[in-house]
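Obj.: predict assembly geometry.
Materials: sequence records (below).
Method: joint structure prediction, all chains together.
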Amino acid sequence: MSSDEQREHAAETAGTESGVDTAGSGAGAGTTSRSSADSDAHTTTSAATGAEAPLVSVQNLEKYFWENDSLLDRLLGGEPVAVRAVDGVSFDIYEGETLGLVGESGCGKSTTGETLLRLQEPTGGRVEFGGENVYEMDNGAVTDFRQSAQVVFQDPFSSLDPRMTIGDIVQQPLDIHDVGTTDERRARVRDLLERVGLSTDQLDRYPHEFSGGQRQRIGIARALALEPEFLVLDEPTSALDVSVQAQVLNLLEDLQDEFDLTYLLISHDLSVIRHICDRVAVMYLGEIVEIGPVEELFDDPKHPYTKALLESVPRATTEERERDRETLAGDVPSPRDPPSGCRFRTRCPMVIPPEDLQIEQETFREIMTARERIENRDISLETVGGEQIEFEDGSVPSADVPAFVDLLHERLFDEPLPGRHREVVDEALAELADSDWEAAESTLRMEYESVCERENPGLGEGAHPVACHLYGEAGTGENAIDPDTWS
Amino acid sequence: MISDRLKSSLKREFDQSLMAKLGLSIALVIILVATFAPILATHHPGQTGHFDEEGSSYPPIGFDYQTHAWEDGDDGRERIPHTVQPTSEHVLGTNNLGQDVYSRMLFGARTSLLVGLIGTGLAAAFGVPFGLVAGYFGGRTDDSMMRVADIMLAFPSLVLAIALIGVFGRSVQYIPDPIVMAGFAEGMPEYAVLPGTVTLVVALVNWVWFARVARGEALAIRNEEYVKAARSLGASNWTVLRKHVLPNSLTPIIVLATIQVAAIILLESSLSYLGFSGTTLSWGYEISQGQDYLRTAWWISTIPGVAIVLAVISINLLGDWLRDALDPNIEGEGGV
Ligand code: SF4
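Observations (raw structure tokens):
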């Protein structure tokens, strides 16, 4: 029943896109032709979400890397440090759909892709492929899994062995799994190369003789050789010229329809995601913060991080670009020591003030940023007073404290804080005049501790879950705080 | 395996570099000489007693030297001055035992090259797989394997070599010489002598360098996406090591191997100079023979010394040439 639906869908999309060939079509053509297919794909997917079991089910997947964990480090008594590249992510991928995984670089999306393919062993959680746990498969099952799940990598230069010919590269999967006779393998390689739009008289050439786009096609041909069901596309176009990107994306879409493929598309590029995905998962610092159907997520992003991401998409005019710069301030915190509570709170413009506090949202953000710097000891107190104020043995002469506080206040805030907030903050800053960081921290925490730093909001269930306290328990609307009142 | 690009880059470097030409010419001469030693030699290298009528060693052509002879005079035996003239029979003179230096140099080249090449081959055969496995698997495996290698490196190589020879004893292998066997060189030794222990020992001392280079390469290559791709296709570690890691780490290993031939020749010479070799047909041994006669018969030590220097320098020049030609940074691409 559902497979019929799939086929129909495939035929239909193939129909809509038959005019869009792999070669020579610009990005514009690809995008417009997609939009009609989008709504179609969307219905298929939501039908799938309802009943069908997912093809890939990722449950609480965790991948920590350990630093300072060598023999020598342990002999010297160093504590190993966990780098939480992937920290408990869960999502499902349904047959025939394309799920996008988007986030800034370093957020753990590529590690997620590699770990779910068991190219790296996870530190926790499970991944089910066709109902079977990938990490508990015996050798035979792993071999089957290796045939059904494939990957296309970001860098078409590094993903092809420079010492192998194109023919050998595409044939390698057939050799490894011992598929058919030598002649049959050769014939299949020719088919595959033709299918991805390369000419077969290039079989004996080496990768360096091809352009980036051609190499990526070779990588795709290799991934298809074993007739997989599922492909992880790890930034498949981000190393390519813009003009070639659309061609490769269109090829991937055509192949998906032709071979009933399911995709996990990892990308930091929102336009790529929008072009090709049915649903999108947004990742931040090892966690998924929002999952939803692509149109819904782009038209009505819920999580403040998703909003910030969408707003930072490059705009045509410089004016707009200037404005966008400011939407996502600050650096991504280190995954070695992620923030408590909500991981986005160090940058979130909507970070939630304590309930009974009267404060402007922007002012609160500024205070939270200042608190963050104090907690990280990220202010060099010696330089605050410049020449005028002496800073010796970690403190300022008591006569100079008010001047010191004023200078520090000026340094931390664009404009002096209004009313009572200035008093509270300056009290904390005066404690810094004695280098008493802890006292400053607790003074500020007493007044400004946010729910966002106490509790990590869970992602929850449903078709469009969001991990943010603004949306209350698990995005159900319960305890929800209306985000508009804060903006 | 050898692509056109590699060929052209080798050629370009060769054309541009005088040193490469020099290195290659000398090395070719040494190889030819070592191969055809029985034909090129004028005397059996072991044959003693080639002295002049007064029992003095001949100097090389173009040199003569003053010594003295004894003569029965009125007051019994008398010391009289005597000038030794060179002879065209012995172009490089004869040594203290009256052996033809030229012939001994040719056969010494054989020993040096055999030990150099076989020793390097063995060192690479131990070191490369060791290093590739350590680097490819990384983590604890790498840690413990490379500690072993570090311990080896902590010993001075000569001391280690002598200790190992002490353990294994000295043995030599006789390899039938096809040129002599086929009757092309009457009266020459029928066997080439390979000092087996020394060959094994120099390999045991020098494999660590191969291990380190191979490990470094494997560490880098295992993170290449083509390795991930192969693993996602289901390739076993063995396949990945053989098909991807080894071929892609060959370039620096080849360069290292070239330079190691020189290092091993030098080590072999040191060992045979110290008398640990097991064969007397060796440049190093020859130096030790002549060192008591440096004041008068300087050539006995100096000529083998020059031979060692030429061999080592020429091989190093070859190594530089290969390195420059193969260097992926200059080429701009990793592939060869
Ligand atoms: S939980 Fe708080 S800090 Fe996190 S995204 Fe929501 S509002 Fe921002």
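Conclusions so far: DSSP finds 18 helices and ten strands in chain A.
To do: check interface contacts against the pulldown list.
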